[in-house]
Automatic annotation (TrEMBL):
Gene3D superfamilies: Glycoside hydrolase/deacetylase (3.20.20.370). Residues 75-126 form the NodB homology domain. GO terms for biological process: carbohydrate metabolic process. Keywords: Membrane, Transmembrane, Transmembrane helix. It comes from Xanthomonas vasicola pv. vasculorum NCPPB 890. This is Acetyl xylan esterase. GO terms for molecular function: hydrolase activity, acting on carbon-nitrogen (but not peptide) bonds. The chain crosses the membrane at residues 39-57. It comes from the Bacteria.
Amino acid sequence: MTTPETLYRTPSHPHRWVGLLALAQAAVAVLWWHLGWAWGLFALLLSHALFVVPVFLPRARLYAPVLARLPGRMPHVWLTIDDGPSDDTPAILDLLDAYDAKATFFVVGARAEQRPELVREMVRRG
Protein backbone atom coordinates (compact mmCIF):
# COMPACT_ATOMS: atom_id res chain seq x y z
CA MET A 1 0.00 0.00 0.00
CA THR A 2 1.27 3.44 -0.80
CA THR A 3 0.52 6.21 1.60
CA PRO A 4 -0.58 9.52 0.10
CA GLU A 5 1.95 12.28 0.50
CA THR A 6 -0.73 14.46 2.10
CA LEU A 7 -0.55 12.36 5.26
CA TYR A 8 2.88 13.79 5.94
CA ARG A 9 2.37 17.38 4.89
CA THR A 10 3.21 20.30 7.13
CA PRO A 11 0.21 22.45 8.05
CA SER A 12 0.02 25.42 5.70
CA HIS A 13 -0.31 27.95 8.54
CA PRO A 14 1.38 26.42 11.59
CA HIS A 15 1.83 29.79 13.31
CA ARG A 16 -1.56 31.35 12.62
CA TRP A 17 -2.52 31.17 16.29
CA VAL A 18 0.38 33.34 17.46
CA GLY A 19 -1.55 36.51 16.63
CA LEU A 20 -4.61 35.28 18.47
CA LEU A 21 -2.49 34.40 21.49
CA ALA A 22 -0.94 37.88 21.47
CA LEU A 23 -4.39 39.44 21.24
CA ALA A 24 -5.64 37.29 24.13
CA GLN A 25 -2.71 38.35 26.28
CA ALA A 26 -3.31 42.00 25.44
CA ALA A 27 -6.93 41.56 26.55
CA VAL A 28 -5.68 39.98 29.78
CA ALA A 29 -3.43 42.97 30.41
CA VAL A 30 -6.27 45.43 29.79
CA LEU A 31 -8.64 43.54 32.10
CA TRP A 32 -5.97 43.27 34.76
CA TRP A 33 -5.21 46.99 34.55
CA HIS A 34 -8.81 48.25 34.49
CA LEU A 35 -10.73 45.67 36.56
CA GLY A 36 -8.10 44.48 39.01
CA TRP A 37 -6.08 41.35 39.60
CA ALA A 38 -9.04 39.01 40.22
CA TRP A 39 -10.55 39.60 36.78
CA GLY A 40 -7.13 39.71 35.21
CA LEU A 41 -6.17 36.37 36.73
CA PHE A 42 -9.47 34.85 35.59
CA ALA A 43 -8.88 36.15 32.06
CA LEU A 44 -5.32 34.82 32.10
CA LEU A 45 -6.44 31.33 33.14
CA LEU A 46 -9.26 31.33 30.60
CA SER A 47 -7.01 32.47 27.75
CA HIS A 48 -4.44 29.80 28.55
CA ALA A 49 -7.10 27.11 28.89
CA LEU A 50 -8.39 27.93 25.41
CA PHE A 51 -4.96 27.16 23.99
CA VAL A 52 -4.10 24.17 26.20
CA VAL A 53 -7.36 22.19 26.24
CA PRO A 54 -7.27 21.30 22.49
CA VAL A 55 -3.92 19.56 23.05
CA PHE A 56 -5.75 16.94 25.12
CA LEU A 57 -8.68 16.47 22.72
CA PRO A 58 -7.83 13.73 20.20
CA ARG A 59 -9.71 15.24 17.26
CA ALA A 60 -9.05 18.93 17.94
CA ARG A 61 -7.70 20.65 14.83
CA LEU A 62 -6.69 23.93 16.42
CA TYR A 63 -2.96 23.68 15.70
CA ALA A 64 -2.70 21.21 12.83
CA PRO A 65 -4.72 18.73 10.79
CA VAL A 66 -5.57 15.53 12.64
CA LEU A 67 -5.32 12.22 10.84
CA ALA A 68 -8.01 9.98 12.32
CA ARG A 69 -7.91 7.12 9.81
CA LEU A 70 -5.82 5.83 6.96
CA PRO A 71 -7.07 5.60 3.40
CA GLY A 72 -8.39 2.22 2.32
CA ARG A 73 -10.26 -0.50 4.15
CA MET A 74 -7.45 -2.54 5.65
CA PRO A 75 -7.09 -2.24 9.42
CA HIS A 76 -3.87 -0.54 10.46
CA VAL A 77 -2.13 0.18 13.72
CA TRP A 78 0.58 2.77 14.22
CA LEU A 79 3.17 1.49 16.64
CA THR A 80 5.45 3.81 18.56
CA ILE A 81 8.21 2.56 20.81
CA ASP A 82 9.77 5.00 23.25
CA ASP A 83 12.92 5.41 25.33
CA GLY A 84 15.26 3.13 23.44
CA PRO A 85 17.48 1.66 22.36
CA SER A 86 17.61 -0.90 25.14
CA ASP A 87 18.41 -4.56 25.67
CA ASP A 88 14.90 -5.37 24.41
CA THR A 89 15.32 -3.60 21.08
CA PRO A 90 16.67 -6.62 19.10
CA ALA A 91 13.75 -8.77 20.29
CA ILE A 92 11.29 -6.05 19.32
CA LEU A 93 12.88 -5.76 15.88
CA ASP A 94 12.69 -9.54 15.43
CA LEU A 95 9.02 -9.55 16.42
CA LEU A 96 8.26 -6.74 13.99
CA ASP A 97 10.07 -8.65 11.23
CA ALA A 98 8.13 -11.82 12.03
CA TYR A 99 4.86 -10.00 11.39
CA ASP A 100 6.20 -7.84 8.55
CA ALA A 101 5.35 -4.81 10.66
CA LYS A 102 6.94 -1.41 11.03
CA ALA A 103 7.14 0.90 14.03
CA THR A 104 8.38 4.34 14.89
CA PHE A 105 11.15 4.35 17.48
CA PHE A 106 11.65 7.44 19.63
CA VAL A 107 15.16 7.14 20.97
CA VAL A 108 16.86 8.82 23.91
CA GLY A 109 19.97 10.66 22.73
CA ALA A 110 22.24 9.41 25.52
CA ARG A 111 21.12 5.81 24.96
CA ALA A 112 21.58 6.17 21.21
CA GLU A 113 25.15 7.38 21.78
CA GLN A 114 25.85 4.34 23.96
CA ARG A 115 24.32 1.86 21.47
CA PRO A 116 24.85 3.21 17.95
CA GLU A 117 24.80 -0.31 16.50
CA LEU A 118 21.19 -0.75 17.63
CA VAL A 119 20.21 2.59 16.15
CA ARG A 120 21.76 1.58 12.81
CA GLU A 121 19.90 -1.75 13.03
CA MET A 122 16.59 0.03 13.65
CA VAL A 123 17.17 2.20 10.59
CA ARG A 124 18.32 -0.74 8.45
CA ARG A 125 15.22 -2.77 9.25
CA GLY A 126 12.93 0.11 8.47
